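> Could you send the Alpha/beta hydrolase family protein prediction when you get a chance?

Sure thing. Input:
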Amino acid sequence: MRDALRDRGAHADLAEITDDDGPPYAARYIARAALEIRRLAPPSPVVLAARGAAGPLLPQIGAAQRAAHRPVAAYLIADSLLPQHGSHSRAELRAAQLGDGVPDPGAAGAERERPAEFYTEALPMAADWPDAPCGYLLTGGGPAACARLAGLRGWPVLDRGDAGAPEGDAGDEALAAGLLELLSML
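Output:
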């Protein structure tokens, strides 16, 4: 993904966060993301992008960046549930935004299998979010209901749902192109 963004002229680094395999899942992920972003030392202001299970955590990741004196220029969310004020769990967000609860790990497009606690733990929220423009990218594997909700919030939405969700390099290229196009809309 990083190379696909750089090939398009963006200064991009990819913080791959894998340290969320134990409770508290969200807090571990946010702390690891903050450390990885610090290690990468991006120029300010930063653009934060997340997809999948990381999307609802963007407010706290952004708060950690502001605390480290790295202002956030924009938030890009791809194929994810939306952050919501309050201390909601992923299951509550899914119920409110998609009308269902804990995802079926065998369903098409499902992320890796996770324990039930991953979906039921309360997610932290930054009270002053969003503090920068936000946009939503929908690809073939994303929840269309969340794209509609993002549009209702007044966010630009880029719908690439008809293009499918290709795998590998083709998927990275399509995602990079979509993210940069979305960023240009903010």
